[in-house]
Design brief:
- The protein has 21 helices and 13 strands.
- The chain is of the alpha/beta class.
- The strands form three sheets. The chain has a six-stranded mixed sheet with strand order 1-6-5-2-3-4, with helices on both faces.
- Strand 3, helix 4 and strand 4 form a beta-alpha-beta unit.
- The model has no long low-confidence stretch (mean pLDDT 90).
Length: 431
């Protein structure tokens, strides 16, 4: 597999330095992507860079994932209009460990092969580097004029930020540049990759290598486009915020729903970027989808591939079953498989009612649904609908409107799902 050609057809190549393509013709290439550990989870905005590393390894080259334990203490000014909050060492160490676990879903760190992935943390080589030594050995190699010419610096200094830019953030590109120099010398790393907003920082690294080690030392830069939605808005954002890879921040059901609900145009781009499906498979899926967009074949396959990659097959199947509860045929057994958070996610948009345990247990269904709650406008309406087979409790048809509600009717010990007809749901929370 030709790595550069792979990125091109997938729409994942934005810029690359001259000579990059030829570098891959000479043998196995070691390349890295840097990740700021500003949270204890990656979100899907990180996925394009991570997938570049995945495609790199699948093409027979060696990926390095650099988690910025040192640079994360400063914060990258690229694309930011204000200074970031600085994180302490303990928080960063925790974040790094969590991110490493997530990356292992995408990259093979355990293989004995020469191109096994490695996770590196720049805190390991920066923690003993004194300010004076850094200023003498690295600071003298790059001029202030060169650093000031970077777009990320110019934008901040030309009025994007009310308070300008601190010296701390100004040094960020030099620290990132030193990461590249260090990996060049210790890991034979010849290529740094990242999002298009990282071009300035990455090329500072290639310049530092050339000036520090001599012009015969060649290093390269490659970036992917910043992924956006069809309307140009930032990818990966919802009304609730980021879509995280950590199930405790974004449940597998919510994660699957994000991909399931992207538009047709987005689905055609995303399935190339965020899956490892081959060219002919994707072409066939796109052609089939275009014949009948209402079936949402692309979105379903995209959701399956990415959810399985991030959370595993079992969580994907639970997310799929949860989706079918609302929009397909499901049984009480399907409900019982859901954990509490997924249950609440699935029925977040339906009317909720709270009742006491005394109002629910031992109470007739008609009293619970038409008196203690307002699932039905009146007892008469509820009785009539029950007789016509139009009322269900926990996906089971209610045979008698006056049957008693028991403990066995409680999902997760405190929920009852009432249903009127096929699509009208009510979630009763028993306190």
């Amino acid at each position: 597999m030709n790595f550069v050609e792979e990125l091109k057809w997938r729409g994942m190549l934005h810029q690359m330095m001259p000579g990059t393509e030829e570098l891959f013709e000479k043998g196995m290439v070691t390349a890295y992507v840097g990740i700021d550990p500003t949270a204890d989870s990656l979100h899907i905005g990180h996925l394009c860079g991570v997938m570049m590393l995945r495609h790199l390894q699948q093409a027979g080259h060696k990926p390095l994932a650099l988690v910025g334990g040192a640079t994360g203490m400063i914060g990258d000014p690229s694309g930011k209009s204000q200074e970031r909050n600085l994180l302490n060492e303990e928080t960063l160490r925790h974040n790094v460990e969590c991110i490493k676990g997530q990356l292992s879903r995408f990259l093979d760190f355990e293989s004995d092969a020469p191109n096994a992935a490695e996770l590196v943390n720049n805190y390991d080589w920066m923690k003993e580097f004194s300010f004076l030594d850094f200023a003498r050995e690295i600071g003298k190699c790059i001029t202030v004029n060169y650093m000031m010419a970077k777009d990320s610096v110019k934008r901040r200094l030309n009025g994007e930020a009310q308070d300008g830019m601190s010296f701390t953030e100004f040094t960020y590109q030099l620290l990132q540049g030193y990461d590249f120099l260090h990996l060049y010398e210790t890991k034979n790393c010849r290529l740094q990759m990242g999002g298009s907003d990282q071009w300035g920082n990455i090329t500072t690294g290639t310049e530092l290598i050339r000036r520090k080690l001599g012009s015969e030392n060649e290093a390269y830069a490659l970036t992917c486009p910043l992924i956006t939605k069809a309307d140009g808005k930032k990818f990966g954002k919802t009304e609730q915020g980021n879509v995280w890879l950590d199930r405790n921040r974004t449940t597998p059901y919510q994660f699957y729903q994000f991909w399931l609900n992207v538009g047709d145009e987005e689905a055609e781009r995303y399935i190339k970027i965020f899956t490892s499906l081959e060219h002919d498979v994707i072409d066939a899926l796109i052609a089939e989808h275009r014949e009948d967009p209402a079936r949402r074949i692309l979105q379903k396959r995209l959701g399956e591939e990415v959810t399985t990659l991030v959370h595993g097959r079992k969580d994907y199947e639970v997310a799929l079953e949860a989706t079918n509860i609302l929009f397909g045929k499901a049984t009480k057994d399907s409900l019982l498989k859901l954990d509490e958070q997924t249950l609440l996610d699935v029925f977040a948009g339906v009317p909720h009612f709270e009742v006491s345990r005394e109002q629910a247990i031992g109470t007739k269904a008609v009293d619970l649904l038409a008196e203690h709650t307002k699932c039905f406008a009146s007892k008469g309406e509820m009785r009539k609908l029950t007789q016509g087979g139009g009322v269900s409790i926990n996906k089971e048809k209610l045979q008698q409107f006056d049957r008693e509600i028991t403990e066995a009717d409680l999902l997760d010990g405190k929920y009852i799902l009432a249903q009127q007809g096929k699509k009208k749901y009510f979630l009763i929370i028993v306190k």
